[in-house]
Amino acid sequence: MKNEISTRQILSVYEKIREHGEADDGKHTLEGISASTDFDGYTLYLEGHQVRLSTGFHNTYHLDYESERASEQFLKKLQYIEANYD
Fold it and tell me: 17-36: per-residue pLDDT in tens?
């Protein structure tokens, strides 16, 4: 799983979800992926397909997922959002 996604891609997808997604209760959702932050905005979260990605400083991220298949679907959806929304 290491190095399958870059911090740049995470931030890009986060911004696209915030810009194009539907807002609801502090989250924005686009293509089944929700984007949110913690209370101070230092940690970003992307969630969907039974996966939760968190990222903060120092170009690190953490993926929590129930299965390898769920993780693969999630990463494909992030790639799709990055490539198809401007």
Answer: 999 999 999 899 999 999 99
Q: In terms of Cα–Cα distance, which of 57, 45, 42, 43 is closest to 18? A: 45
H or E segment at 34?
strand 33-37
- Residue 12 inside a domain? The answer is yes
Considering the entire predicted model, what is its pTM? 0.90
Q: Which domain holds residue 45?
A: 7-84
Nearest 10 degrees: CA dihedral of 26, 9, 64, 28? 20
Residue 32 in any domain: the answer is yes
29 found inside a domain: yes
